[in-house]
Prior knowledge:
The protein is an alpha+beta fold. It has helices at residues 65-74, 121-127, 132-139, 172-180, 186-192, 200-212, and strands spanning 3-8, 12-16, 19-23, 28-30, 34-37, 40-41, 59-63, 88-90, 103-106, 109-116, 144-150, 152-154, 161-164.
Amino acid sequence: MKILSINISEPKKIIFNGKELITSIYKKPVDKSVELTDLGIMGDQQADLKVHGGYDKAVYVYSHKHYQLWSEKLKRNFDEFGLVGENLTIDDFNEEKINIGDEFSISDCILKITQPRIPCYKLGIKMNDRNFPKNFSQSGRTGAYMKVLKTGKISPGDSLDLIKKEKNSMSIYEITDLLYIDIDNIDKMKNVIQIDSLTEEIKEKFRERLIKLGEYI
């Protein structure tokens, strides 16, 4: 896998439905090496740290192959990097083949997959489609957040190389499917909350759902 683009932004104000919002989803490519810290890419800032950023969600990666999917569904041509607010646009990032806990090297840096992207309504604003967050989630093509295990510098064109495969885990796609499609699968949810590398944010969603289904763990 290869990094096609590194994208960053600072929080900016937008007007939506007559209201002022602050968002960092409008990320733009940089054409130089960047410093990767344990909190993400130097120069990239998040508007809402409750749902984005932090140590477990320091870097968001997304597949450029998915651009074509959304171009076809929305009947628009998407050719600018940073389409869904991702930090790293990867040529071919396959959610079905990558597990929670998998570790990758980029240059001298090491990163670990921690969870799928959970979209908020601001993604719908950026894509100019109020149904986009729902369609995005249910497609399973959500990309993933990564935790930085070893800091350093990365550049456009660097490769993303798998260095450790998490065995007792599930794929990003499977987790997303359990979140949005296969929502009553009690056995799978019980297995998911045992995955060490999965964020507490996602585990808590499944714990709450299990309780609602009458399963106390």
